Structure formats: C-alpha cells, structure tokens
Amino acid sequence: MKSNFDIIIVGGGAAGFFTAINIAEKNPNLKVAILERGKTVLEKVRISGGGRCNVTHACFVPNDLVKYYPRGEKELRGPFHQFCSGDTIEWFERHGVTLKIEEDGRMFPTTDSSQTIIDCFLGLTQKLKIQILTGQSVQSLYKGDDYWKVETNHDTFSCQKLIMTTGSNPKIWELLHNLGHTIVPPVPSLFTFNIKDIRIKDLMGVSAFAKVKVKGSKLEAAGPLLITHWGMSGPGILRLSAWGARELFDKNYQFTLEVNWLHDTSFEEAMDTLKELKQEHAKKAVSKKSPFDFPNRLWESLVLASSIETETKWADLTKIQLTQLANQLTNGQFQVNGKSTFKEEFVTAGGIDLKEINFKTMESKLHENLFFAGEIVNIDAITGGFNFQNAWTSGFIVAQSVLE
User: Alpha carbon of 4 to those of 139, 141, 160, 179: distances in Å?
Assistant: First the structure.
C-alpha cells in the first residue's frame, strides 16, 4: 500500500505530536501523518516526572534557560528567543491545560497527571484530522527530486516534507547516517555514582550542599548531594554527570571524585574555623555536634575518618588531626566505580551533529525538506522539564518553517 501525505512525522512522542498539532492548526488543509513504531504513542510523556509529566521549567529568560543544556547551549539561544517556557505555559493554557510551578521551578499540570497532557494531544490530533499510524517501523528513507519516500515494515509512504522526532533511536540514526548526516555516538548523560566507602556506608538519605569535582579534570559542579545505598546522587552529582557525559564515558566510569562538603570554603579557611572551634569548645567532644551546615551523622563520620575518636575533646586535637579533618571537609577523595541510571529518566547525550542543522528552521543543512525536533539531535539537558522544553521549542520552529 502506498500513501501520500504533505507532511510525515516519524516518532510519536512529545516533539512529534507538538510539531504535528502546530502545523495542522495553522494549515488545516495539509495531510499530516505521525508514524510510530510502537503500539502506543507518548510513552515517555506517560512516565516522565514520576507519571506527573514535568512539562517545562519556570525559567523565563532565554539566556538563563540555555545554561541547563550541557549540549545545545549555544544553538538553543536563538530558538528560545522564538519560543520559550512562557510560550509553553501560554500554549497549554490555550489548549485547556493549566500548569503550576513547584518550589524547585519544575512545572506540572495542576492535575498532577501526565494523562492530562496525553489527552490534550490525542484530542487535538483527532480534531485536526492528523493520522496516527502505530506499529510502523521505518526501514528505509529515500529522497526523490521533490518528495521523500518512507518505507516501513508494513507500507510505503511519500511526502513533501519529512520531520524526524525519534529521540535516541539507533536505527533511525543509522538511516540518517546513510543519508550523509554525522551522528555523535550516544552515551548516558544523567546518572549517579557507585561508591563503596566506609565514610558513607551507613548514611543513606543524608543530604548536604557540596561542591564536587572529577580529579585531574576541569569538571566540577555544585548542588545538593544525596548519599544513597549505592553511592552518591542528587542535583550536584547529576549536573556533573551531564556535563561530563563524554569524559566520564571515556574513563569507563572509574575516577576519583573530590568532594568539598563546605562547598566554597577553602582548606585554609576550614583550618582557621577549626582552630577557632578548638578554642571555643575546648571541653566538648568533637564528634557530638556538627558545627557546619550539614547533618550530624555526616560530621561524625568525617571526624572518625580523620582518626579522631568519638570521645576526643576539641582541646585535645593535634595539628595532624586538625589537618586531616580540614582535608576531609574540603577535599574528600572518593573512588567512583561505575554508574547507576537515575530513576526511569534515561537521557542520552549524542545524536545528529549540531553543525548540520539550521537552528533558525530546524532543517537539515544537507537535505532540503528534512527537519528535526527533540532529542534526535545532539542536545540534552539536566532534569527539571528542560528536555521537554527543547521538544516544544524545536517542534514549534519546525512547524513555522514547514508552513513558510
């Protein structure tokens, strides 16, 4: 069977649906189809944000927003000036979905259910007569003089404009590579660190604001660090894993992590503070109470790691013990041995090389009438609604370009 469409979108996820809807709303006469290889559509939307769908982030200034993207920061500046998080909120409001801001800036539907977003999209595709064809796994792409031919496991389709929104799908990347596109190999981006260390062994659930650094490299990040039963997690660690995705992959996830539990305090400043504490609390036991802004259990553990016994009083600390304690506080060395996936949010760095895309239109620089939206390109972000914002922005721009 052969079907002709004006526009075919490959990939039935967030970017695919958003692009299709924006096209059909502006030009209802176009024949638009979404091809999806799975039995169901919008699966990632369903599970995102623990089933609540973290739609976007309450960061409304394009130049600030781009800073959350380890890959794509420079390229997204222009696009975000065209369609930013404020536009996302307005778009969903206009389509009957109200969003709310949580304390950390993440934005969710007020219903706290990703089904709200799915229902909105499915309702609109039905209303706009966009065809959704599931179970269609693309096998080959062919470019004619003024059309594209798409062969799937079931059918052959042709269209004037082809839009790829398949996320991190290796099969599609391979087909695009055959068309001459450079694919930056995918590596995991958001992950936590596996660390077996006596200092954190029984501290599961303890959290502190820390600065973390990969020893012998320029990689560093700051943020809340959470101790887990397998090692370390939390925003600070995830940020480091995102910005270090390539480098840590090359290290095979074996490296030394330097942790400064006092985040911006230097070793010398910590020494001075400890000497003052030695004077002030001379008669008190060192390990009793944390004098710093992190939990007592962590303090106790670092005191022990500095060869200071539980009952030792501040007055009795030797210079060596003070030095060791200042070191543990500002430059704890932890051996990382492997990684763990962060929740169910599996984000990869990698995809179509950004140099081969025109970010004013999201069109391929190699082939006319071939467009990209979402995570199929080498753009990714940390968690917090940023990956979805990239999907909405790129989808919106594709829709504008296709109609021009």
Answer: 17, 15, 9, 22
Residue range 319-333: mean pLDDT, rounded: 98
How far is the CA of 325 from the CAs of 218, 299, 328, in angstroms? 25, 10, 5
DSSP bridge pairs for 221: 212
Q: Which residue has the tokens 């079931």?
A: 154
pLDDT greater than 90 at residue 61 = yes
Rounded distance between C-alpha atoms, residue 38 and residue 11, angstroms: 9
248 φ, ψ (degrees, to nearest 5): -70, -30
Report the C-alpha gap between 150 and 125 in whole angstroms. 21
pLDDT, position 84: 98
* pLDDT tens-digit readout, 165-221: 999 999 999 999 999 999 999 999 999 999 999 999 999 999 999 999 999 999 999
User: Which pTM does this prediction carry?
Assistant: 0.91
**CA–centroid distance for 364 within its chain:** 24
